[in-house]
Structure formats: structure tokens, C-alpha cells
Write a structure and sequence with these properties.
The structure is a homodimer of 89-residue chains. Chain A is of the alpha+beta class and 89 residues long. The first copy, chain A, has five helices and three strands. The first copy, chain A, binds a DNA duplex (30 and 30 nucleotides) through helix 3 and helix 4.
Chain lengths: 89, 89
DNA sequence: CTCATTAATCGTAGAATGACGATAAAGAAT
DNA sequence: ATTCTTTATCGTCATTCTACGATTAATGAG
């Protein structure tokens, strides 16, 4: 369960279609690099990187550097708390 | 279940602490008029009216005019679809 | 070492958001 | 009819968001 401000923050991060699609993709394939998401979305690399930054700042996504690339995956813990809070609204 | 764009739109509407508080209050007392929400939040009447408009545009809230005042309540249907979609992310 | 690949950051421009006070509209009350 | 109450809308300003291209940083390959 999350307090109202934190919940609002996560909602805000999810409040963009591109970021929803990123989340859905990460859920589908577990983990992937930024470039893969760039392929999927009709957005520039820098824009995708920004969206990933927003999701990371909200805690929904974790990124670990693997050489020259960064591998992203969902933070199941945070996602779970979000779901539980959403269910209790 | 909602498509990605609709879900993102609702998340966006929920992406502000004041609007979360409005939703929570409406859930707690079922229905109330705008002025009551103005009492609760540290915001000007016009600002609260704007927030209500955002929630209404997202479909989360319904408002019916009752004489000079407007009575707001949650749209349980939409809220349910939101919760189900959130749970499936 | 040099070059290629990958992702983050910078700078920027335009659109949207959030806040307010002032005003308008609609009805109730006197 | 006039006044009061309530809410929506308007106009405005500062801030944030979204998108892009260009640049930088980091690493791997040759």
C-alpha cells in the first residue's frame, strides 16, 4: 500500500501511452535493452530514454548497465504495491 | 479492461495528489458538492473545479446539477475497469 | 589505438498543466 | 426584483511535459 502522494506519482508516470506500452513490453519479455524499445515505439531514442527515466524515477523500472547498453526490467515489488493500492481506491 | 491509451488517460487524471484526495473523499462519503471539497483541500475554488473537470473528462466522476450546486460521485463502472486493468499490468 | 555501438544528457521549442483572482451564470431566498 | 450562494469559465502566469536533434560518455570490436 502506498500513501496518496506516492500513488499519485506512480499514476503520473503511467499517464502516458508510450510508458504504458513500455511497461507492457517489459512484462511480456521480462527484460530488455533500451534499443529494443526504440524499435517498437515511433519515438526518437532520446525520447524513449526520457520515458525510461520517468519510469525509473517513479520506481516502476530498474535499469542495470551491461557494458555499453542498459538492461531494463520491472520492479515487481513497486508494481505490486501500486496494484494493491489501486484495488483499494 | 481498458486499452492502453484509455488506461494511460485515467492514470494521468489520477496523477495529482489533490485528485487522489478527491477520489478518496468521494469513495468515503459517496456523493458531495464541490464546495465541500473546497473546504477539505488547500486550494482555490476555481482550482478545485478544474480538478473535478479533469476527473470528469477521464470518466472517473459524474456530476449532476442540483439547483445552484453540482453533486459529484464516482463512476463505479469506470473505476472497476481501471482496477481490473491495473491488476493485469 | 581507433572506430562503431549504445544510451544518457543537453539545449530547445511548443504544448499542456496547475494555480490564482475575477467574472459570469443559474437558481434560491428575502 | 434584488440579493445571496454556488459553481463554471475566462484570462493569465509560471512551471512542467513531450518531442526532437546533437552531443557526450562508455564500452566492445577490429
Amino acid at each position: 500500500m502506498l500513501d496518496a502522494a506516492t500513488f499519485a506519482g506512480i499514476c503520473k508516470a503511467l499517464g502516458h501511452p508510450a510508458r504504458i506500452r513500455i511497461i507492457e513490453h517489459l512484462r511480456a519479455i521480462d527484460r530488455c535493452i533500451c534499443g529494443e524499445i526504440v524499435q517498437i515505439l515511433p519515438l526518437a531514442q532520446s525520447t524513449v530514454s526520457q520515458h525510461l527515466k520517468v519510469l525509473k524515477a517513479a520506481g516502476l523500472v530498474k535499469g542495470e548497465v551491461e557494458g555499453p547498453r542498459t538492461c531494463y526490467c520491472l520492479d515487481g515489488e513497486v508494481l505490486d504495491r501500486f496494484k494493491k493500492t489501486a484495488a483499494s481506491i
